[in-house]
Write a structure and sequence with these properties.
This protein has 301 residues and is α/β, with parallel strands linked by helices. It is built from nine helices and twelve strands. Helix content is 40%, strand content 16%.
């Protein structure tokens, strides 16, 4: 079985009559940045989502607040009342640097220790929330940096985060991201191998990214990910363009993708990733789950 233990340890995957199994759909809170976090969770639960991909950010559980432990405990209770599973995401744009998007990264010269500190905080938060995984990426490579040094810095940072993940028993989901130093499955497999293939170092796979740049079809990418998969982000996308689109606006045929997830027995969250749609979040979220349910039903017919 791939994926991790379900929500807060108490909600199993949903089996339908006749043996058909429905994926557990979640939604990324980075697509609800104009909502209070608690309001966003209420809306998503009402619409039938079973989990959230929680991006730690200034207004959504700031990991640097002095009242963090109390806020995490309150959020844990809220998630449980709503029956929502959670994966912790760390891709907030300006959390560490108000002037430069996504900086510093694990590849930066000065400042990369701040990124490591953030990721370790994310692991501890995930442990307190009983989250299924912590997702993160490499960051872009500074122009002046050679590949060898970039690789060494990335390995050093990942090793440090792994130490904390091992301490708390929290799976990590490394996400290949177009335009970053590790952008594809080849890069993920290199990184994991260099780290010694640790059990807790898994993969966050964005379905749209596969269509954007992987040489294989999206279902083939899912099968290649196999048992290393701990989180799935799902969105539509076109070949060669890294733009997260609503379902039906890109080029992906989704029933074969969901069928591939079922084929590898993936049990983790499948979370909608539309970080530029906060202006219309409730309507976009509702359209998204209606689309995904229809695609899942097509798989099971």
């Amino acid at each position: 079985m791939t994926g991790t233990t379900p929500p807060n340890g108490d909600s199993p995957p949903v089996d339908r009559p006749g043996g058909a199994r429905s994926p557990r759909f979640g939604y990324g809170t980075n697509g609800f940045t104009n909502h209070r976090l608690t309001d966003a969770l209420e809306v998503l639960a009402e619409q039938g989502y079973e989990g959230v991909a929680l991006t730690l950010d200034q207004d959504h559980l700031d990991p640097f607040t002095t009242e963090l432990s109390e806020q995490v405990e309150q959020l844990r209770g809220h998630l449980r009342r709503l029956g929502l599973a959670v994966v912790v995401e760390t891709g907030a744009r300006y959390l560490l640097d108000p002037r430069h998007k996504h900086h510093p990264t694990l590849l930066s010269g000065p400042g990369r220790s701040a990124r490591v500190d953030l990721l370790r905080r994310a692991v501890r938060i995930a442990a307190q929330l009983s989250a299924e995984a912590v997702s993160f990426w490499s960051g872009t490579k500074p122009a002046e940096l050679d590949d060898e040094t970039a690789g060494l810095r990335l390995l050093e940072g990942c090793s440090a985060v792994l130490d904390t993940a091992n301490e708390y028993g929290v799976p990590l989901g490394f996400e290949p991201e177009p335009g970053m130093f590790v952008s594809d499955l080849d890069g993920f497999e290199w990184l994991r191998s260099e780290l010694g293939s640790p059990e807790l170092f898994g993969l966050t796979l964005d379905i749209g990214h596969c269509r954007c740049l992987e040489p294989d079809s999206v279902p083939q990418c899912v099968r290649r990910a196999g048992d290393r998969l701990v989180h799935v982000q799902i969105d539509d996308m076109c070949r060669g363009t890294h733009e997260h689109l609503e379902f039906g606006d890109g080029e992906i045929d989704f029933p074969p993708v969901l069928a591939a997830l079922e084929e590898i027995d993936y049990r983790g969250l499948v979370s909608v990733e539309l970080p530029r749609h906060s202006h219309a979040a409730p309507r976009v979220a509702l359209r998204s789950i209606d689309f995904l349910r229809a695609a899942a039903a097509e798989v099971n017919t």
